[in-house]
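Worked example

This section walks through a single chain of length 418. The input is the sequence exactly as stored; nothing has been trimmed or padded.
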Amino acid sequence: MVMIKEVGAKQILDSRKEKTIFVTIKTNAGSFSASSPTGKSTGKYEAKPYKKDIDTDIKNLKEYSDYFSEEHLDSFGDLRRVEDIISNCVGANSLFALESAVLKAIAKEQNKEVWQIVNPNLGKKNAEFPRIVGNCIGGGMHSKITGGKKPDFQEFLIIPETNSVLQAWHINKDAQINAEIILKNIDKKFNGKRNDENAWISSLSNKEVLDVLKDLKDNICDERRLYLDEGFDAAASSLFKRKKYYYENPIFKRDKDEQFDYISNLVKNFHLLYIEDPFEENDFEGFAKLLKKFPDRLIVGDDLIVTNQKRLKKAIETKAVNAVIIKPNQCGSLLEVKRVCELARQKGIKLVFSHRSGETTESILADLAFGFQADFFKIAITGKEREAKIERLIEIENDIKGIKSKKDIVEGRIKELG
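Given that input, the structure is written out below as tokens.
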């Protein structure tokens, strides 16, 4: 069993060069640490990232350090002991980082992987890997263009149809290179810059970017003989003001019905699979209407649900979504993450584990996604903070499928030669 001897914390910078928290625990199994991402386009129903501010959380974690010394932690469910002590004293980011470090300690003490602690019943025979959702071209709050326009939607996404994480990642990287070439040809203001999530920054409109994705789809199909699905994250709450959706590229404002017609036309005309947050975060009715019209597409709730069991229940009651975004630091509690995942599974709702706009090189999101058997894993295609998560998922895939990495093969050969 793991016993926590000391808890410490400090500030570090995320991929946006903004402050986030890094938590370290000293245990009988060794020292373990974890950090939390930070969101930029945040739903108003998310838990607060810090109780008051990051410095207060750091102080509270250290002050309550001794309270953990008598707790014996042996399983995922034992996170309840952690939450009983500290959940009212820190915010969601801090709780997530602390609980992640605890899972690492339990896994080490038991000589297991973190995903095995998350899901002890998961084995090689019944394990499946999520489809990778790559954030290729960006807009909205995640992109900055000085004195110019950008797509109003936040993310434009590509989803290779393959059960290999490694293959999907290679396809997405090829597609993003291809997208750069296309953007250079059709976007006069394109300068090769990337946004908060390492997606291309473009001055094109939503429809023009979707045309680019269509070209990517055709190119990948021709070159690799593989199918590529497409989609977007509208992050519609960020467009919604005074009961209307305000667009800047081109300038337009839409009421609720006009927004529904606009989204519907995009889904139909571009044959989109994935539609995330097409309406503002209180419009369960709009989501439900879209799902009824397109029952074979993924109508995904993020700001609508914010990894919150109560809001997911409302979405289920109103038949608002058939897929839900899981961002562990939206609620902080990994026990709540488990409750949300289990409820979604019971109701046939797809799980989409997702990165945030401000990321760190922390890779535990991959273990959580695999452990909870996510259907999709949404992540930027490049950038060391994002690649750390993809690489961890590939590492798990190689282990499950018995595939040796080049490093293992070389080290094994050296060992054979003495």
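What to look for: Residues 409-418 have pLDDT under 50 and may be disordered.
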